Amino acid sequence: MQPSHANAIHRLPRQLPAGQPLVAPNSRFQAPTHGSERAPQDLAGRRQRAASNGPDGPPAGTRVTGRDGGGSGRHSDDTSLVDHFLIAMPALDDPNFSRAVIYVCQHDDHGAMGLTINRRGDFDLSHVLEQVGQASASAQINNQPVLLGGPVMPERGFVLHQTDERRWDSSLQVTAQLAVTTSRDILQAFSDGQPPRRQLFALGYAGWGTGQLERELLDNAWLTVPADHAILFDTPIEQRWQAAAGLIGIDPLQLSGYSGHA
User: Fold this and answer.
1) What CATH number did the domain enclosing 61 receive?
2) Does the predicted model carry a pTM greater than 0.70?
């Protein structure tokens, strides 16, 4: 069975408030794109993703749901994947999502949006801060890796972070503890050496149109499990795929037989 590819462009289920973007549209930072994908111009408007439906995998019963993340843009609590990990099956050979772990930030009747948390870019945060004129004196901040969050809007920055008493110009509350911020004021906090206590920085995101993620789940392209925030922020990037799969007691490398790959 060959993977199918489809493009989905639709309005985000919940819009982030307007704010100066973290990285300008003409940014020199570009994540890899696939096929004929073209990034939309405004996160608050439309999004697009080339979907890959992997070959047959393990039974659909590997899906785990039921954790209430308290987020926005949800289905009913027993079907929403907000605050869950999507774990790519070995058969998912789209180069954007091979062995990916995606943290789901939005999921409702209009589609889903998430950030890949285990794909490191070729540059660190110092390059982003320098580009927007907000260099930091902190070596720890400067050396923080920039993740490739997905093939949509790869020129834009997204900070997934633990919330505190501060409010940012453009944030989406994902759970009671986590938010995604896309406005440039949060970079000033990095520059000042006072970023959110737990956070990650990504360029681009992954998005699904209406019913698209559900179809991929039926095709066994993904495993799903409630997110472990320690994996989000503490586990080394290169270990997150297997660590996320370990939450449901499996080694994803042992599933390759389901896909017809060695």
Assistant:
1) 3.40.1740.10
2) yes
